[in-house]
């Protein structure tokens, strides 16, 4: 494994964008579900503030609510309320209704049940605590009350042992049909042998691999592939064979998640229960061309690189379609025109360029090939950088030579200005006492300030 230590982390802006675009989506939907659960379909802001920690709201609840006016509406009940109440907009209620239909569809229930069954078969004990499933509920795409609406519908798959808070979900019947990994399925569709499966990789732009690392990587890919559904206790814990099996387990688990990504701490928590936490950490560190770590949204996220292309998922999923609609609504601003609400996209990208011209220009330049929508932003950034350079030049010493002070230059008379204009036309302006003649181009200049900013420095 010494060769793997030479791997260098290279940032992937497309995958960073895929993670960053979901910022605040989970707390927003948690608040939405909390409001919807109330009989009045509204809540006072004080109740939301009391549950801020459990909802994981990143700022003051009232600021969070007002940040998304296309999702939440603030009002005073009866016009005399001391604390504002919050209700949902018709737009977000429409998306919520479609989300409910997705969760209630038989096809989606079967899809989620298959994911849970595969996860139970990966576990060596064939059972998983409910606390871990609740931790992965968002990633697995489970409905809010899955223990009551999903688990009872598949008694031949799994069963609940113990209570809902401290119980476990236990495997009922092993399925040979589902105990096949994604890589094994692709190998069966092609000509590749199941015993010599190689991982698909995506190298980030700028990633370099020396000869020693390249040889180690090629040898690692040729190692026997052990299915994540097989017992691998016979492998040495710190061997390359064991690491390839751990990579197969993590690869399969990320494929079970709807977004093909998850918070690193949640992945390691599952790995700890499976008894391979340290192997997960080593695999993620040594194989950045298979698993990408993003530091966006104030946390670390493990992303399956092969599942994305230019920052977008390559595999369609009905729940991700709904989540993308929520994201679009979050970044839509509602304004009133002629008494009617009109939704317009918010200008978040432009605001970012105002905060940091240099970093945003570099990001836009790197992403230009994958997004045609950034052309206008690039032009705006270029204009701002041009103005910045002009301002810097204006701060340069403005003496023409011979000890002429800046203050004297700034208090030039109209006669001096006319003399300067005459110099542009080929006439010789009067020189200050003790100054040297400086060669000037005969091309016309648009203004006096521009001419002063390009004068020669004094000796």
From TrEMBL:
Which residue ranges are recorded for the region named Disordered? Answer: 338-459
Top-level taxon of origin: Eukaryota
Q: Which InterPro entries match?
A: PORR_domain, PORR_fam
Q: Where is the composition biased (Basic and acidic residues)?
A: 448-459
Q: Where is the composition biased (Polar residues)?
A: 411-428
PORR domain mapped to chain residues: 10-333
Report any Pfam family annotated for this entry. Answer: PORR
Instruction: List the Gene Ontology MF annotations in alphabetical order.
Output: RNA binding
Entry protein name: PORR domain-containing protein
């Amino acid at each position: 494994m010494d060769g793997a230590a030479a791997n260098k982390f290279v940032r992937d802006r497309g995958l960073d964008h895929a993670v960053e675009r979901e910022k605040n989506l989970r707390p927003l939907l948690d608040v939405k579900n909390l409001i919807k659960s109330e009989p009045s379909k509204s809540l006072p802001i004080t109740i939301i503030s009391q549950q801020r920690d459990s909802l994981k709201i990143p700022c003051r609840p009232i600021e969070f609510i007002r940040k998304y006016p296309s999702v939440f509406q603030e009002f005073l009940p009866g016009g005399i309320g001391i604390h504002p109440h919050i209700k949902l907009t018709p737009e977000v209620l429409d998306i919520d209704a479609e989300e409910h239909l997705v969760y209630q569809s038989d096809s989606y229930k079967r899809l989620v049940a298959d994911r849970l069954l595969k996860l139970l078969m990966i576990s060596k004990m064939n059972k998983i605590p409910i606390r871990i499933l609740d931790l992965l509920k968002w990633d697995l795409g489970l409905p809010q009350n899955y223990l009551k609406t999903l688990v009872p519908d598949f008694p031949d798959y799994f069963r609940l042992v113990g209570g809902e808070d401290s119980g476990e979900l236990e495997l009922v019947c092993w399925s040979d049909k589902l105990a096949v990994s994604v890589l094994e399925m692709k190998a069966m569709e092609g000509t590749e042998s199941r015993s010599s499966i190689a991982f698909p990789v995506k190298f980030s732009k700028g990633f370099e691999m020396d000869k020693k690392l390249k040889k180690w990587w090629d040898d690692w890919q040729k190692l026997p592939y052990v299915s994540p559904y097989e017992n691998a206790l016979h492998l040495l814990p710190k061997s390359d064979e064991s690491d390839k099996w751990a990579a197969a387990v993590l690869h399969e688990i990320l494929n079970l998640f709807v977004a093909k990504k998850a918070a690193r701490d949640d992945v390691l928590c599952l790995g700890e229960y499976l008894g391979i936490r340290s192997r997960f950490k080593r695999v993620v560190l040594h194989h950045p061309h298979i698993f990408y770590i993003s530091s966006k949204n104030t946390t670390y996220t493990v992303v399956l690189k092969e599942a994305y292309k230019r920052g977008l998922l390559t595999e369609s999923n009905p729940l991700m379609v709904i989540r993308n609609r929520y994201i679009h609504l979050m970044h839509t601003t509602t304004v009133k025109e002629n008494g009617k609400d009109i939704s317009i996209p918010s200008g978040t990208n432009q605001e970012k360029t105002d905060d940091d011209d240099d970093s945003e220009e570099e990001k836009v330049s790197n992403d230009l090939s994958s997004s045609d929508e950034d052309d206008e932003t690039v032009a705006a950034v270029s204009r701002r950088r041009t103005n910045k350079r002009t301002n810097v030049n204006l701060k340069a010493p403005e003496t023409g030579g011979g000890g002429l002070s800046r203050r004297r230059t700034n208090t030039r008379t109209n006669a001096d200005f006319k003399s300067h204009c005459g110099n542009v036309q080929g006439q010789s302006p009067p020189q200050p006492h003790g100054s040297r003649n400086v060669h000037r181009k005969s091309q016309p200049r648009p203004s006096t300030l521009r001419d002063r900013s390009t004068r020669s420095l004094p000796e």
